[in-house]
Amino acid sequence: MGVKILSFLFLNFSLVWCGKHDIYKGCSVYSVLLRNTDDLHTLYKLEVESNLDIWQHGLPGVREAVVMPTPENRDVFFEGMERNGIGFYEKIHDVAQALKKNENDQLERKMKRNNAVPFSKYPRYAEVDEYLERIAREYPDIVTLVNAGPSFEGRAVKYLKISTSNFTDPKKPIYFMDATIHAREWVTTPVALYSIHRLVEDLQNDERDLLQDIDWIILPIVNPDGYEYSHTDDRLWRRTRSYRPEISETCYGVDGNRNFDINFNTLGISSDPCSNVYPGPEPFSEPETQYVRDILQDDRIQLYLNIHSHGNYILYGFGNATLPHNVLSLHQVGASMGASIDTKKLDKAGFYAVGNSNLVLYGSSGSAQDYGQLVVPFSYTLELPGYEYSFEVPDDYIDQINVETWAGIVDSARLVKLFYAERINSES
């Protein structure tokens, strides 16, 4: 039989139990063995045309793709794999049961680690808000708390500005990072919070240059409505939570990472408002993406890091496979960042793959990464590790991911500081 699936065993629906994860009854997750870019394009087409939920796009010959068909598109997925001779196997038999088990495990660990700091667990929105407020209150000389404005549902979208010179020194570049534009990618928020911790609460002597020579903007939760919804109602929710009954009375939100004004609504999107890659009715239709856009207008921003999960990738523009004019420098900084992370990674984790997002993974339009590249010199998508857990990485791994990712952030910050010095010298 090999890896080719010759027959399919459907789930036994005789077991009935109630809970918020019931919407995933009948869903299984499959690993897909990618041989070449044609296989990758087959999955990409299924995602756009059939609303196939791709958890990890994979890298041909290196790492598998991970997909979750629903009962509605499962046959289309099977037929597409069979027709193209693509091998795959079942990774998670019952998604609803797996989510329930993971939630129970998280609750047990939370009881044992009740006093864990917010960057060592999966904090809720209120905990993140409290942490940002506390840091700003306790370190007023270097930290400014900014409320960018309300989310669609009215939650404050807050970020910190960290600077020894109150953002008044034009010789200092700005490093801007954000997280959780996709709601279900929980592990990204602790990385942003840990970066705040290392810069403000636990600045090492050998890293003081990071604060003296660089200003920082850190936005831990871009999409607070979706983030909270993924905790309370639907663990795998990805989009924002905007509601436009004139477009759809049943489907909420848009893919925030397709909502930016660059090649909008052209590639890697779906016109179906229920799709995970629905870009929205127009660019910046979401208040959350407007706030990211507005932050990026500061011309001292030298690097923008849009943090995602999962897959161990460092990607840069453009999503239509055209390359920025400074692609060599982009690749140099991205490769150095990835190498620094790889020196601290777990043995079971894959090495970071670095390259153009279209050529390494798939085509896209309207992404934060691409918009960032329009207005700042260095813009990246960082895909954190998922190990074998996809979006359900146990919180036991959070400290590891924080530490290794911080090493990459430090490396990239020091490199772009040099590029910024060259930039301002050439402009003077």
UniProtKB/TrEMBL annotation:
Catalytic residues, chain numbering: 383
Keyword Nucleotide-binding belongs to the record: no
Record InterPro entries: M14A-like_propep, M14A_act_pep, Peptidase_M14
UniProt domain Peptidase M14: residue ranges: 121-416
Gene Ontology molecular function: metallocarboxypeptidase activity; zinc ion binding
Signal peptide: 1-18
Alphabetized UniProt keyword annotations: Carboxypeptidase, Disulfide bond, Hydrolase, Metal-binding, Metalloprotease, Protease, Signal, Zinc
One Gene Ontology cellular component annotation held by this UniProt entry: extracellular space
Essential cofactor(s): Zn(2+)
Domain of life from the UniProt record: Eukaryota
Gene Ontology biological-process entries: proteolysis
Pfam families the record matches: Peptidase_M14, Propep_M14
Protein family according to the UniProt entry: Belongs to the peptidase M14 family.
UniProt-recorded name of the protein: Peptidase M14 domain-containing protein
